[in-house]
Specification:
Elements lengths: L4 H6 L7 E2 L7 E2 L8 H4 L18 H9 L9 E4 L4 H14 L6 E6 L7 H14 L3 E5 L8 H19 L3 E3 L4 H13 L4 H4 L5 E3 L5 E3 L7 H10 L17 H12 L7 H25 L8 H14 L6 H14 L1 E3 L4 E6 L2 E6 L2
Parallel strand pairs: 3-4, 3-6, 4-5, 6-8
Antiparallel strand pairs: 1-2, 7-8, 9-10, 10-11
Helix pairs in contact: 7-10, 7-11, 12-13
């Protein structure tokens, strides 16, 4: 697994260029590790894959896709694609890397139906990926509302259902480094704790065993688009992504260039530095909690974190005030009410939930 997005994104290597004008492999010119890949771009040969696609993939992804394995022969893989630049790049990269590996793959396009053009755009995306040689299916979830969070929940639910029905055990998603930075900033503005600063995980297993893997988190938005333009690959631009009235993420995206004027660092790189440290801290916390045998002997912050984890499992609301109240009640009385049906208790030093009598 790879996590050090900051190292991958901010590294610089002079005179490094990846060229595959007439060869099946990229040429590495005077570089070491992964430095410079994001800055120099790459060129793809016209060699055919599935009709017209190069056998080459972005040099960074040639390392990162294997790192996101294992990829046992016969693993069924779904790609969540919208027709946009990022998911189209993912489809190209996966097709090139997976060639000959017996990894049956299909593309899933979600049509939320929340705008007049969405059905036509979804059909165009389906045609785009079919033209690339993929089996592509349009999914239409039932959405209770049109907020960003409601759409996201509906999207994940229908993708997970489609994968269960299709037998896919891996779902690839096209989130990239800028998405990660935007997510962290939005969480900060909404009052997140340290856990939320860790950002978007490279991999996550959903209930039922479906594993989400995100191979593009080490790539920047502009480099993805530059590479698609270079190889004359079309994609579908969702015009609502530029409308600040649609979502908080759109408004933040328009502000990002101005944020660069507040400091000396690229704001995306600066946020990723914070996210990287938060992710490492999250791993440390999980390790400490796994080793702890007596809840009451944990430091206060870790006690509250353990309570928060239990509340999330129960589907209960988590807030700083509530965590303090429940922690106090557990320390004083050995139990605390979660709701009218459930109690948290401390027994043998361990935190448990049980029905209220």
């Amino acid at each position: 697994m790879y996590r050090n997005y900051l190292e991958l994104i901010s590294s610089r290597v002079e005179n490094a260029e990846y060229v595959a004008a007439n060869t099946a492999e990229p040429i590495d010119a005077n570089t070491s590790g992964h430095g410079g890949i994001l800055e120099k771009g790459f060129r793809i040969s016209p060699a055919d894959v599935g009709g017209r696609h190069s056998r080459c993939v972005h040099p960074l992804l040639e390392t990162r896709l294997p790192d996101l394995g294992p990829w046992p022969e016969g693993t069924r893989v779904a790609l969540a694609c919208s027709g946009g630049a990022d998911s189209t790049f993912l489809a190209l990269a996966w097709q090139a890397w997976a060639q000959g590996k017996n990894l049956p793959s299909r593309v899933l396009v979600v049509d939320h139906g929340h705008r007049a053009e969405s059905e036509a755009d979804a059909a165009s995306a389906q045609d785009l990926y079919r033209g690339m040689g993929y089996q592509a299916e349009v999914l239409a979830p039932k959405v209770g509302g049109d907020t960003e969070n409601e759409l996201r929940i509906a999207r994940y639910e229908i993708l997970a259902r489609a994968c269960r029905e299709g037998g896919e055990t891996v779902l690839l998603m096209a989130h990239h480094a800028d998405d990660l930075a935007e997510t962290v900033l939005l969480r900060v503005f909404r009052g997140t704790g340290l856990k939320g600063l860790a950002g978007i995980p490279t991999r996550r297993t959903l209930a039922g065993g479906l594993e989400i893997r995100r191979p593009l988190l080490c790539l920047r938005r502009e480099k993805i688009r530059e590479n698609l333009v270079e190889r004359q690959q079309d994609w579908i631009e969702d015009q609502t992504n530029a409308n600040p009235e649609i979502s908080a993420r759109n408004r933040l995206r328009l502000l990002m260039p101005q944020l660069s004027e507040l400091g000396t660092a690229d704001p995306v790189v600066a946020v990723l530095r914070l996210s990287e440290e938060a992710a490492e801290w999250e791993e440390t916390v999980l390790s400490l909690l796994a080793e702890a045998s007596v809840w009451s002997e944990l430091p206060p912050w870790l006690r509250k974190r353990k309570v928060a984890d239990e509340l999330r499992v129960l589907g209960a609301t988590v807030s700083p005030t509530r965590l303090r109240d429940i922690e106090f009640s557990l320390l004083e009385k050995g139990s605390a009410a979660v709701d009218r049906d459930t109690l948290l208790t401390v027994s043998g030093g361990t935190l448990h939930s049980r029905p209220r009598a």
